[in-house]
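Chain particulars:
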Amino acid sequence: MTATPVDVLDGQPIARVRRGDVDYVLLGTAHVSRVSADAVRAILERESFDAVAVELCESRFQSMRDPEAFRKLDLFQVIRQGKVGLIAANLALSAFQRRLAEQFGIEPGAEMKAAIDGADARHLPIWLVDREIGITLKRAYRSVGFVDRLSIVGGLGASLLTREEVSEDEIEKLKQGDLLGSMFNEFARESPPLYDALIGERDRYMTARLREKSQDGSAQRVLVVIGAGHLAGIERELAAQMDVPRPLIERLSTTPPASRWPKWFAIGVFVLIAAAIGYAFTQGTAKGTDALVTWIVFTGGFAALGAIAAAAHPLSVIAAFIAAPLKPFRPGIPASAISAGVEAWLRRPRVADFDTLRDDVAHWTGWWKNRIARTLLNFMFVTLGTLIGEYAAGFRIIKNLF
């Protein structure tokens, strides 16, 4: 007896919503399932659409379209503009995706690529409806308190350093969830502000983008390929959202201002240390000199240790040691930027570094082998070393005075 072929669309999360003159067919996909990619192909073959919307932002779309996009990365510009953290976060997401790819034998974003290829083959417009990942991460980071921010950094760090396979429990959550939400695991679900930034806000943003793209009346039927974790939210928002799309999109695209208290706290600490050094000189030249030397040795020493930990060039280590104690005389130019700039100049990235960057960062040891990744590490480690050195120096100076 011949077995009946299984319909690839059976059991797939699909929702159909009509709003105004537009029919939206929402297809929920899993990031770890070949079936999702097959489902995308199947629904495009069986039904006719006027447009295909995908859960991608412009930068991720270009990265998918152009695998060599990282060759256009200007490392000096990244350092100068203070975007090291953003690039590192993107690489952390890439590393998490690579882990999934290695474990399940499916390329990251296969379902999105199937949607893009299917739209291209049918000459359909592709709508990019997701918010830029950098904005999402910034809003998530600034939506929570200090302790929760450590959990965000920890979640990104774990994606870079762990080599463990994704557990069965996490796999099931991925099948019904969102890639960004899964990176932060239970913490995202236990922190309402973080969950809203990663999931809720993007549901509202993507819905507003769908409505905005539909306003010209060129599409009556739209296939929307999204992670399964966004299906219910976007279905609900399509039925209920009443805000004018453009102002809502702009509101959800703004980056909340950074909290001022860390900056003022840091300034206060430095003023206290500077005052302590000045007071030490009033107690005698020897005491003042000892306090000044303590400041130089601790700030320069810990910054240099950060560069050494990143396997930086000896001249980059020396640059970190010299620049860190001079912080008061170069506001806005951290020692980490100077050291990383020297590193990038002395060890300019090779073509091979750009070609292998995404694969290298999937393994934590690869961060020290790839010149681009190592320069980013240099920036981050020197930043951390300088911070530790400043507080250690201040504690020792004030302790020796009293």
About this structure: The radius of gyration is 25 Å. The mean pLDDT is 80. The chain is about 65% helix and 5% strand.
